[in-house]
Design goal:
This protein has 383 residues and is of the alpha/beta class. It has two domains: 142 residues, NAD(P)-binding Rossmann-like Domain (Rossmann fold, 3-Layer(aba) Sandwich); 209 residues, Dihydrodipicolinate Reductase, domain 2, CATH 3.30.360.10. 31% of the residues lie in helices and 23% in strands. A nine-stranded mixed beta sheet has the order 16-15-14-13-7-12-11-8-17. Strands 3-2-1-4-5-6 form a six-stranded parallel beta sheet, with helices on both faces. The longest helix has 20 residues. The two termini are 21 Å apart. The structure holds nicotinamide-adenine-dinucleotide (NAD). Nicotinamide-adenine-dinucleotide binds next to helix 1.
Length: 383
């Protein structure tokens, strides 16, 4: 029988209850949910009772010192990722971490280098590489379905402080979440949240898997809704200011005349039209036909356009469950047990964080800026 990897989780908030804890429990043949930690008294204990974890803590240092967890999943606020990731790695534990790895490129670089120097595994969320639609899109493009990709367009909006709208956008299978929502107003604060940290990684992981590192970045980033009212959680009804850009347009240059157009915003959390479209010299691939519909449509140019049409490719969702989004920990567990290379690339996440950093700088300076980071994708994805 395969050995079990002992797992700890720090930050038992929205996303922990949304899918991570359930995913670890469902991965019970390889993972053991050993310890949970949250600074709010009683929160980790309540989740430990619900999900069957052995121990609960309010301090990460104590959890690391008094348990034998081999891997720790960091699910705290973005500005805390650096401190918590560093603590985990310095204690010699493997790291799974939600996006972004840290709130600054310098801090994130330190974390990735620390993991590499210590020979510890680092799995960077989100697990887009495993999503069936993303994999199908990669396979179709590799097979030449749309010819040479010349441009990518991607659009994503959300509104995390209004849980009902947010749930509606993500899909009805999240209605089962019965935990009280947290105060998510931090997601709108400069240096802490905003769509660039929250949404842009989802948008840039698939195209950078296909086209590789981005060479240059140009952007407009502003605040469209300076004052908001929280729609859910302990802060429901409270007015708060938006200080992180909530309205961002990026132009990306992959070199060799290949371009990207990206919109990331905290505007009403829905949109019509595909999440991502790839434009090639022989067709178009539309990935995800709107909020919560995970499908692919292919438009191929045939015989001078006379027979050209859109066709659906594969089934929507393809068995993809909300817990499959938890690959940053389930895949990490598998890689520890099998001593395999992690596919959720920390170097790719670092590159995307540099692009995000350049968005702010390009917006401030009004010009295109070159990237300096690069990455190579690890080997073939597991079947
Ligand atoms: N909310 C979502 O739908 C969603 C989806 C995908 C990814 N994410 C990512 O997940 C991460 C967490 O987001 P969230 O929405 O769950 O946040 P959240 O605010 O709901 O939860 C954060 C938790 O961390 C706890 N915490 C704060 N300081 C702590 C400390 N010092 N030690 C231990 N615990 C501490 C808080 O009490 C809270 O329970 C972020 O990186 C976010 O980008 C969120």
């Amino acid at each position: 029988m395969a050995r079990k990897v002992s797992v700890g989780v720090v930050g038992i908030g929205t996303v922990a209850e949304l899918f991570y804890l359930e995913a670890i429990v469902k991965h019970g043949d390889r993972a053991e949910l050993t310890a949970l930690c949250d600074v709010v008294p009683g929160r980790a204990q309540a989740a430990a009772d619900k999900w069957g974890a052995k121990a609960a803590f309010t301090d990460l240092g104590k959890m690391l010192a008094s348990t034998d967890v081999e891997a720790v999943l960091v699910l705290t606020k973005h500005s805390q990722h650096y401190e918590h990731a560093k603590q985990v790695l310095e204690a010699g534990r493997h790291l799974g971490i939600e996006k972004p790895i840290a709130a600054t490129i310098e801090q994130a670089t330190e974390i990735v280098e620390l993991a590499e120097a210590r020979g510890l595994k680092l799995a960077a969320a989100p697990a887009m590489a495993f999503e069936p639609v993303a994999r199908r899109a990669e396979a179709l493009i590799a097979d030449g379905a749309i010819g040479r990709v010349a441009a990518v367009r991607t659009h994503m909006t959300a509104n995390p402080a209004d849980r009902e709208t947010e749930w509606q956008r993500i899909g009805p299978n999240l209605a089962r979440i019965d935990t009280p929502p947290t105060d998510q107003t931090w997601m709108y604060q400069a240096g802490e949240g905003g769509p660039l940290f929250d949404l842009t990684p989802y948008q840039l992981i698939p195209p950078t898997r296909l086209l590789g590192p981005i060479r240059r970045v140009g952007a407009l980033a502003g605040i469209a809704v300076p004052e908001r009212v929280s729609g859910s959680g302990p802060a429901k009804g409270q007015r708060f200011a938006t200080t992180a850009p909530d309205n961002v347009v990026m132009l990306l240059d992959w070199g060799e005349d290949r371009f990207g157009m990206v919109y990331s915003g905290y505007l009403p959390a829905n949109f019509r039209g595909p999440h991502t479209e790839y434009y090639g010299d022989a067709g178009v691939l539309a990935v995800n036909g709107g909020a919560g519909v995970d499908n692919i449509e292919l438009y191929r140019t045939v015989t001078g356009g006379r027979e050209s049409r859109w066709e659906a490719v594969g089934e929507p969702n393809d068995g993809w469950d909300v817990v499959d989004r938890a690959g940053a920990i389930t895949h990490l567990v598998d890689c520890i047990a099998d001593d395999a290379e992690v596919q959720l690339s920390a170097r790719q996440a670092l590159h995307i964080l540099e692009v995000i950093d350049l968005v702010h700088k390009s917006n401030a300076g009004g010009r295109f800026l070159p990237t300096t980071t690069t990455f190579e994708l690890p080997g073939t994805l597991p079947a």
